Amino acid sequence: xxxxxxxxxxxxxxxxxxxxxxxxxxxxxxxxxxxxxxxxxxxxxxxxxxxxxxxxxxxxxxxxxxxxxxxxxxxxxxxxxxxxxxxxxxxxxxxxxxxxxxxxxxxxxxxxxxxxxxxxxxxxxxxxxxxxxxxxxxxxxxxxxxxxxxxxxxxxxxxxxxxxxxxxxxxxxxxxxxxxxxxxxxxxxxxxxxxxxxxxxxxxxxxxxxxxxxxxxxxxxxxxxxxxxxxxxxxxxxxxxxxxxxxxxxxxxxxxxxxxxxxx
Length: 264
Fold this sequence. Notes:
Blueprint: E1 2-4, E2 11-13, H1 20-42, H2 46-53, H3 64-72, E3 80-86, H4 98-107, E4 112-118, H5 121-135, E5 138-144, E6 147-148, E7 151-153, E8 163-165, H6 176-193, E9 194-203, H7 214-222, E10 226-229, E11 235-237, E12 240-243, E13 246-249, E14 252-253, E15 258-261
Parallel strand pairs: 3-4, 3-5, 5-9, 9-10
Antiparallel strand pairs: 1-2, 6-7, 7-8, 10-15, 11-14, 12-13
Helix pairs in contact: 5-6, 6-7
C-alpha cells in the first residue's frame, strides 16, 4: 500500500502497522516510568525495595494496588501466594494484568500476593526459597511466562537455564543435560516452598496441551495439582478459591480450554 507525500509529491510505502501485541509492549514500556513514579508517590521507597527484594524491573506489568500492598506487607505474617514471572516478554503480552487484578481483589484481604521476576530457573528457585524462608510456605504458585507444551521461558531465548523444560523436550542447545535437569530441580524446590495441597496455575501458552505436557510433569514431580491452558491464550480469570490455608485454581483462558493435571 502506498500513500502520497505532500512534501516531495511522490508515493512511498506506508510504515507497517504494529500488531496488537507490539502495541501493548510499546504502551507498557511508556507506562513504566509513570507507574514507578506513582508507586513511589504513594509509598516512598517501594520501587527500590521491590527491585532489590523481589527482583522486579517491569512494574507496569502488575496492578498498582498489588504493588502497593506488596510493599506494605513486607513484614506481614499473613498467608501469602507466589507469582514467578518471567523477565522476558518479547511481545508485551504480560502488560495485561487483569487476571492478577481480579485475584488481588478477590482474595487479597485473606492472602497476600508476592511477585518475583526471574530470567532463569535457578534464579526462580532462589527467589522462591528466599521468600519461603522469610514468610513460611506459600498458599499457591502462579507461573507467568511465554511457553509451549514442553516448557516455559523465563529469560531470553537461547540463554542457558532460561527455560523450565520437560525431560522429553527436543534438545535446543548443547547444554541438554542442564536443561533437562531443571524440571526435577525446580519441582524439588517447590515442594519446600509450597504448603501441602497448594495449587499451581500456569499463565503460559499451551503448557497444558496434552497429558504429557510440562504442566502434568510438574504436577507429577512436585506433588501439587496444576492448571494450564491447552493452547495459545491469555488469562481471563484465575478462578481462585481459598480452601483452608491454600488456594485452588479453576482458571479461564481467552482462546483455550483448561487442563487440570493431578499430582501423582
